[in-house]
Amino acid sequence: MFLVARIFLIAMSLALLGSAGALAQSSQSWEQILAAAKKEGVVSVIGPQGSETRDALTLAFQKKYPDIRVELQSMAGNQIGPKLFNELATGRNSTDLLITGTTTALETLVPAKAAAPIKPVLIGPNTRDLSKWRGGKLTFSDDAQTYNLVFSSYVKAPFIYNTNLVSANDFKSWKDLLDPKWYGKITLKDPLSAGGGLGNSTLWYTHESLGKDFMRKLLTQKDIVMPRDDRQMLDFAARGKYPIAIGP
Asked: Crossing angle for the helix pair 2-17 and 30-40, nearest 10 degrees?
């Protein structure tokens, strides 16, 4: 929660000063920025989907800064680019901070020059103290070491399933998904968009015992469905329509 709180302080600074460049040129103290943020009263953030993620990204900050309301909009990676590009095109920038996976940042926002350098806004308590960061340094996913700050990592479940229709004993390896009994019962997050589908597909492609042969067999299964909406996949699994969901 501490790292998340620091990230939200970055967002608050952006909301106040409009851009990283403006903040870099500002001589305001942290106390002045905090006072201005309280006066504005809100910070707008786009973050990952899921109620647990929402709580992790808001509750601690909201408790520490009750005068600054966090507006968190949960979105899938493939939904983020169009929204932000529309904001830029219309000149109505309502989003202060984006928390998302590296694919969206590296393949969508950075090439379009839609991301601002983040180092200039690291002015809050502890943010410039590298001993507070994992490994004693700031970690970026982009080559310029400028735009996409990596502040957390987690283990993602490879797939989920409806326990009323599927048993854990059915699976000992990825190849068990090729069993004909699962035909028409699997959704895979679209691997052509950012998210778990792309991540799993990368793993399969590079794994020596899976590779292109496994991918070809899985992706050409009869009636495999590839949504782009995580919530839709979870709903399908919960209702049993497609009891196995890969990558939500």
From this structure: 80
Nearest to 106 by CA among 66, 147, 67: 147
pLDDT in tens, the chain (248 residues): 112 223 333 333 333 333 333 344 444 677 888 888 889 898 888 888 778 878 888 898 889 899 999 999 888 777 888 888 888 888 888 888 888 878 888 888 888 888 888 888 787 777 778 888 888 888 888 888 888 888 777 677 788 999 999 999 999 999 999 999 999 999 998 888 777 888 888 889 999 899 999 999 998 887 888 988 888 999 999 999 999 999 87
Query: Amino acid identity of 101?
Result: G
Co-location of 130 and 194 in the same domain: no
**62: its two tokens:** 């909201």
**170 CB neighbour count, 10 Å cutoff:** 13
Which of 104, 124, 150 marks a domain boundary?
150
- Compute the distance between CA of residue 162 and CA of residue 138 in angstroms, rounded to an integer: 40
The CATH number of residue 68's host domain is 3.40.190
Asked if residue 163 and residue 113 are part of one domain, the reply reads no
Judgement on whether residues 130 and 169 belong to the same structural domain of the protein: no
What are residue 94's DSSP bridge partners? none
**Is residue 140 helix, strand or coil?**
strand
Q: Which domain holds residue 203?
A: 159-246
DSSP-derived letter for residue 141 is S
Residue 229 exposed, middle or buried by CB count within 10 Å (0-12, 13-18, 19+): middle
